[in-house]
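Morning. Coffee machine broken again, so started the prediction first thing and wrote up yesterday's gels while waiting. Chain of 70 residues, entered below exactly as on the submission form.
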Amino acid sequence: SPAILGIGFGLTPRQHHVAGLLLHGLSSREIALQLGASVETVRSHVKQVLHKTRQSRVSGFVRTFARVPE
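Came back before lunch.
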């Protein structure tokens, strides 16, 4: 995932990891399975990622940040 997410938006390491997985097209459920976390926990991380990046939807987040060079 683009390094700018962690630096420019103040994401925690876990939020940065979740953001990267979102950019690779994984769903909250798939991310939860990969991280060994609950879906609710992942949804909380996603919500914080969207808030910190000023996005209202995951689709907008992916459209915006999938194009940012690493």
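The longest helix spans residues 39-52. Going to sketch it on the whiteboard this afternoon.
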